[in-house]
Amino acid sequence: MAPGNSALPVTHAELGKYLLLATLGRGGMAEVYLALARGPVGFKKLVVIKKLRSDLADQAPMVAMLLDEARLAARLHHPNVVQTLEVGENAAGHFIAMEYLDGQPLDKLIRATLHRADRPGPAFWGRLVADALAGLHYAHELRDFDGTPLHIIHRDVSPHNLFVTYEGEVKLVDFGIAKAALSSSEVTEAGLVKGKVAYMAPEQALGQPMDRRADIFAMGVVLWELLAGQRLWHADTPAATLQKLMQEPIPSLSALVPGLDPRLEAICTRALEKDPARRFPTAGQFREELEAALEGLSPRAPRRDEIARTLQALFSEERAKVEERIQQMMRSAHDEDLDLDVTVEAEPLAPALPSLVTPASRKQPTNPFSRAQAHTVPSIPKSEPTTPARAPGASRKRGVLLTVAALTLVLLASAAGVVGLRDSGGRPPAAVAVAAPAPAAEPTARPDPMVSGELVLRICGSNTIGAELMPALVESFLKQKGASQISRVAGLQADQLYISAQVAGQPRPQLIRIDAQGSATAFTGLAAHTCDLGMASRPVKDDEAEKLKAAGLGDVRLPGGEHVLALDGIAVIVHPANPVRELTVGQLHGIFTGRLKDWSEVGGTAGPIGLYARDDKSGTFDTFQNLVLHKDKLPGGAKRYEDSNKLSDDVAGDPSGIGFIGVAYVRNAKALAVASGEASATFPSAFTVNTESYALARRLYLYTPVGTRVPLMSNLVGFALSPAGQEVVRAQGFVDLSVEAQVVEACTRCSPKYRQLVKGARRLNLDFRFRTDGDTLDSRGQRDLERLVLFLRGHSGKRLLLLGFSDAGEDPAASHKLSLEWARRVGTELSARGVHAAEVRGFGAEMPVAPNTEPAGRERNRRVEVWLEG
Q: How far is residue 408's CA from residue 426's CA, in Å, rounded to a whole number?
């Protein structure tokens, strides 16, 4: 029976792969949900979703605020900072998916222990603050991909925004009003005070300029209150609190806590200096001095497992009730039962991250030491909310507070933002929507007359990327955004394709055009402003980069403009019956320049060699020219192709043929192992290409103007680099950037020291490399740091090994020193993210993967391998 006009009953609303289980709260800017992340093979994981309120979706300042928070949250990867799992946008609008924390906020822990005879002592509270300082220092030190400091200031450090899990971890949460250099919005007005006055530094409370030392003051207040067991400022109103802050001295801790170690009081005193210049300059130094003081205390500071046991004992009943309620909700979701009771003992089910909602909407005192509430909190809490705190603005109604109307599709970017992206040429045909005139710097639109719709994004460049990979990425991206009627329409020009999609709220289809005519056209198109996003299967050349800079697009060689999308290898292919197994780069040069004309000259069966090659515009040919041909040219008799699949199939059908192609296009041909310089012959594989140890491996790039924030372009690039985008990369036959550990064969040409060090360990499929200046990680390495940290979170207890290598120099000792320095730099970057290597070694110029006779080869030899042991 066909369905009629009546819709099926809505059970649980979905947000992409997330099933929303219950409303946790609604703040001034966002709605917060408990959700279930679903994956393959029955994988399920609880998460917290923070979504921009549907009634604010069309308010640009609100969208900008959430996106600023999302941009910052997505960069934070540290054990003592709440983890952001995904920043996305789809039919429900913009959202942030964050880890579900099973534990209690510090303010609730304070209230639960405040009147207990066995209240934890200074060492316990000092341990919590020291761990929180580690996360705060990491955030303060965070840099952009090009090494520029982001100057992050949390601005709302308080017991409400410090969370202690039942595993004994301390997490800094709620960067919703944090200030960072990567924020694009100007929502925060000069002089506007945000945060909790009771924890503000004087300069922050007065709306004056501030830096990271404002957060240090706030953490000093937290430490003072934890040690004293009472609030620092006793006042009934924020104005009275501010007056005390500005006029009264900090009360003496030793007078309130007899026997307190004087070092702890000295640390508090320095953190609470009203003059920022007299405070600790960094949270790291604050932590170092606190750690040193804790070492001398008796009883000693607790270990993580001891903190965990304390939390579990204090909140055992609450934890059990929350777990039971979550299981009920999950069963209800499975049974399609809408009548979810989201209350426990007449209290709303609160989010595991209470700080995800606007603090001002909380129905509780700002300070956990409030005397007005102290008598209502029993020493062993039995009627507290069953998760850390009451959800701000939470309703007591039964049922999941979700509506279909709240999941209305939001366009990828505002109409004004996408109208400015126009094609080159003359008057647009009548069939194409032109919503507004293009900016003076942009040409007017001229889409294909056969294509009806509004052109919102222009992508140009590499055929290797543009033939199938980019169309697949665009289609998956649009599907994630909730678009419908997605289709491909061929353009009039060769290698031109339109992706058409219907987006809710738009009268005409939205068009994304892909021109795949070779990597060189990415840079000419960007420079001419006829292209918005460039695709290249080789890095930008210096002269091209200078032209782009002159065109006002910034230095695209910086990580902010250069994005490694995937990896590919140029496979040398022959007929499947060809007996040749491997060739050197020198032999390939001889073959493809016509110097070697017979297979017998390279160990094969006698007979002429037939040459097959890509066209001059392709990035594949350009890379082959740089890696193999150098300044020489192909013979005139070589067969040239624009279509990679056609080339591969023709070689597979020619017993005398040899060609070069992207690894994804080997198809029915046979790929040869390739040797270069001192490096041994290596077959192209996902592992050898990812580590770039294969002689003809290459990176596939996306290039964007530096400093230009076009929402649609930025969102597409972000999707392409996300796990979902990388799944598309893998499905298209390219090598994705996800991190894996692999057992590798024992190295026969390595030093005994190296073999012993990696014995029993697995090698990760990434090597860190540095920019040509040797001082900073390249654009891939900057992002691989974050990927590696996320990977290692699932491999706790393993020993991390960082092994550095350099190119061959005249002085072996200097080469060894450089290799060790590069390994240490990677170690330092990881330490700043809470990951510490067990071994950091340098091996000089051992084990080259490329010739040291040319600059590109020397760059590839300067690398840091990553191994995992245990």
A: 36
**Nearest alpha carbon to residue 592 among 497, 688, 657:** 657
- pTM for this prediction: 0.53
Task: Pick left, alpha or beta for residue 505 (phi over 0 → left; psi -120 to 50 → alpha; otherwise beta).
Answer: left
CA distance 94 to 412: 9
Measured CA angle at 792 (ends 721, 828), to 5 deg? 90
Compute the residue count for the chain. 870
Show which residues are catalytic. 156
Contact criterion met (CB below 8 Å) for 267 and 223: yes
How many angstroms separate the CA atoms of 555 and 548, rounded?
7
pLDDT tens per residue, range 769-785? 987 766 778 888 988 98
* DSSP, res 275: S
Interstrand relation of 170-172 and 343-344 (parallel, antiparallel or unpaired)? unpaired
Supply the DSSP symbol for 349: P
pLDDT digits (tens, 9 = 90+) for 160-197: 999 999 999 999 988 755 565 544 444 343 334 445 78
Domains of the chain, CATH where assigned: 59-83+99-301 (1.10.510.10), 415-554 (3.40.190), 565-698 (3.40.190.10), 739-869 (3.30.1330.60)
Residue 700 Cα to chain centre, angstroms: 18
Cβ atoms < 10 Å from Cβ of 603: 12
The answer to whether 390 and 350 have CB atoms below 8 angstroms apart is yes
| SS3 label, residue 680 | coil
Q: Which residues are within 8 A (CB) of 819 and not within 5 positions of it... i.e. 6 or more apart?
A: 804, 805, 806, 842, 843, 844, 845, 862
For residue 9, whether the previous peptide bond is cis, meaning omega lies within 30 degrees of 0, is no
